[in-house]
Amino acid sequence: MQNQLLKPEELETLMKTFPKWEHHDKCLKRIFEFQDFKEAFDFMIQVAEIAETLDHHPDWSNSWNEVSIQISTHSANGLTYLDHRFVEEVESVIKD
Ligand code: H2B
Q: Is the backbone of residue 90 left (phi > 0), alpha (psi -120 to 50) or beta?
């Protein structure tokens, strides 16, 4: 179930719910901006916990106050319910 590819309409709804995420081919991307490195790193710690809990890990990078996240399900070669869940969980720790 979690590893099933999202249907086009489910992906569309997700993108409407979280418009700051971009859909690129087989992955979802968002760049998060914070006040400083401390805030960015605190966010990364929370995301790392989410990733371990879901056993679903982002491709990501950090540059001082910015965190860039890309998510996909490699084993399914596309976007699945796990990616959907990951985006929801990450968004729940953001206050903007
Ligand atoms: N994370 C992501 N984003 N995609 C995957 O396909 C994936 C993962 N696979 N984390 C998991 C780990 C897999 O390697 C383990 C064995 O469950």
A: alpha
